[in-house]
């Protein structure tokens, strides 16, 4: 049965936008759980594409740097698709989680658009992850490097990331990237399978 966009959003966006603390240094949200799902595109888009990813996953890197940009050009920018990214850290018990917390720290400071810019830089790196690298990349997007390093080191956003991980488990995600188009899973994350799945709903 095809799920409606309302059903997808209700099941996929478990948390709402909360307040950001402004009197601590480095800054950190009052509740990590208050961060919304990073997204691109209008809320009212008729199609919602949801992607479950792990920053240490090579296939996620290919999806983020090669396939998502095509979706942005063809569907998100014209307002036909809303893209939502969910964390599904499972490949590396340490760095999958720390990288996710680093990216969420950037989101907390600057919002979804900067989250995706930072996420792309994480995917583009050809060296092993480290807390120092997370801080260096944060500087390149104008985020607070010390806040990002602290978030990664202490996994300050682990509880928020766990919300995404649990949602993925409930939806039988076993590998990354796993994509849903209005709640239905296309044959693969390849563009040749995603585009027809989107087109059928427009």
Write structural notes for this entry:
- The protein is of the alpha+beta class.
- Helix content is 49%, strand content 10%.
- It contains 8 helices and 4 strands; from the N terminus they run H-E-E-H-E-H-H-H-H-H-E-H.
- It has a 4-stranded mixed beta sheet, with helices on both faces.
- Strand 2 (47-53), helix 2 and strand 3 form a beta-alpha-beta unit.
- Helix 3 (95-110) packs parallel to helix 5 (131-140), helix 3 (95-110) runs antiparallel to helix 6 (145-154) and helix 5 (131-140) packs antiparallel against helix 6.
- The chain is globular and about 45 Å long.
* Radius of gyration based on Cα positions: 16 Å
Helical content (DSSP H or I, runs of 4+)? 40-55%
Strand order of the largest sheet: 1-3-2-4
User: What is the overall silhouette?
Assistant: globular
| Amino- and carboxy-terminal Cα gap | 17 Å
The percentage of residues in β strands lies in: 5-15%
The arrangement of helices and strands along the chain is HEEHEHHHHHEH
**Strand segment count:** 4
Structural class by secondary-structure content = alpha+beta
How is the main sheet built?
Answer: 4 strands, mixed
Count of DSSP H/I helices: 8
Look at the structure and give the mean pLDDT: 88
Uncertain runs = 1-26
What are the SSEs and their pairings?
Layout: H1 5-12, E1 39-40, E2 47-53, H2 58-76, E3 81-87, H3 95-110, H4 112-124, H5 131-140, H6 145-154, H7 158-170, E4 178-181, H8 191-199
Parallel strand pairs: 2-3
Antiparallel strand pairs: 1-3, 2-4
Helix pairs in contact: 3-4, 3-5, 3-6, 5-6
Task: Give a short summary of the structure.
With 202 residues, the protein is of the alpha+beta class. Helix content is 49%, strand content 10%.
């Amino acid at each position: 049965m095809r799920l409606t966009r309302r059903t997808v959003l209700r099941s996929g966006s478990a948390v709402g936008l909360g307040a950001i603390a402004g009197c601590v240094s480095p800054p950190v949200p009052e509740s990590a759980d208050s961060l919304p799902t990073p997204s691109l595109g209008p809320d009212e888009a008729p199609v919602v594409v949801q992607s479950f990813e792990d920053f240490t996953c090579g296939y996620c890197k290919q999806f983020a740097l090669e396939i998502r940009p095509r979706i942005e050009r063809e569907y998100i920018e014209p307002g036909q698709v809303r893209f939502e990214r969910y964390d599904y850290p499972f490949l590396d018990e340490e760095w999958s989680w720390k990288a996710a917390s680093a990216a969420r720290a950037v989101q907390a400071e600057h919002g979804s658009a900067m989250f995706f810019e930072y996420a792309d830089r994480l995917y583009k790196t050809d060296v092993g992850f480290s807390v120092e690298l997370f801080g260096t990349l944060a500087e390149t997007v104008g985020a607070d490097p010390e806040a990002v390093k602290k978030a990664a080191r202490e996994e300050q956003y682990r509880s928020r990331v766990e919300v995404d991980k649990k949602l993925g488990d409930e939806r039988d995600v076993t590998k990354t990237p796993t994509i849903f188009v209005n709640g239905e899973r296309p044959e693969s994350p390849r563009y040749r399978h995603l585009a027809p799945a989107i087109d059928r709903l427009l």
